[in-house]
Amino acid sequence: MKNIKLIEAPSEIGAGTRGASMGVDAIKIAALDFMSNFFVHFPSEKIDAPNDLLFEPIQSPYAKRIHGVINMTEKISKSVYDCIKGNFFPVVLSGDHSNALGTIAGIKQAKPKSKLGVIWIDAHADMHTPYTTPSGNMHGMPLAAAIAEDNAEASIHELDEKTAKQWEQLKKLGKVNQMVMPEDVVFISLRDYEKEEKALIEKHGIKVITTSEVRRIGAENVSRKVLRYLSDCTDIYVSFDVDSLDSSISKGTGTPVSNGLREREAEDLISKFMQNRKICCFEITEVNPTLDKENLMAEIAFNILQRSVNVLMMN
Fold this sequence. Notes:
By secondary structure, this protein is of the alpha/beta class. It has one domain: Ureohydrolase domain (Arginase, Chain A). Helices cover 39% and strands 13% of the residues. The protein is built from ten helices and eight strands. An eight-stranded parallel beta sheet has the order 2-1-3-8-7-4-5-6, sandwiched between helices. α1 packs across α10 and α9 packs parallel to α10. The longest helix is centred in the N-terminal third of the chain and has 20 residues. The radius of gyration is 18 Å and the shape is globular. The termini are close together.
């Protein structure tokens, strides 16, 4: 049986739309509305997030608020490290997806010898870099940093020295040269990405499982296929961005995209993954209640969270 610890990381400084910092509280409100005492059952830690940076002018247009992202991801990595070292299983509830880099770094610091697999359930690839970004938003970059990729071949921006240095710092957050090997990444429901990211996916031959494949072969077969593909990995981290869900239900997130997963598909898939002993961390991100009606996105996220944690505790 796993001891669960909840880590709340309500930073939204990596996002382009405001409101994701309220996602964690929205999930707690969903629990209350369902009359669930889920949040009373587990130890939790709330990380202080630098969201006040949103009121300050942007210094680095191709890596917006990168100094804040470094600060936040360092704090998350320490928290995840302490959690794993204390024999807890970290379940991270986070604002925007740039926080995931801190989670990955924390796992690597706690398990420096591990070959870490990443299951990225997301409409987006999050593999831009400051050299290729169309927006400068850091939540589009965590996976590129995790695989230590600049994507120089597709570069369209010249970086100033300070931004370039800060990007190097982010890539080395886990105190290793490369936190994750690209062949140990699997995308699920990926469907909205730019040509620069496509070039990286093709260059590294990264595995992509589409929404239609999930629908065609079912959650159990997808989870089997993914875990077989990652069979060399000693540990696996599952990162669930709620925009992987179809835009008909995922209104409460900054970047909804059609042709996504249904709620039940995501829930079945994630709970299948949680049955595997190699899973070492689970993260839910990008719930933005300010864009929503009736807190629907947070309710869906809470259902997925609760079922996943129940499965984890049974294994």
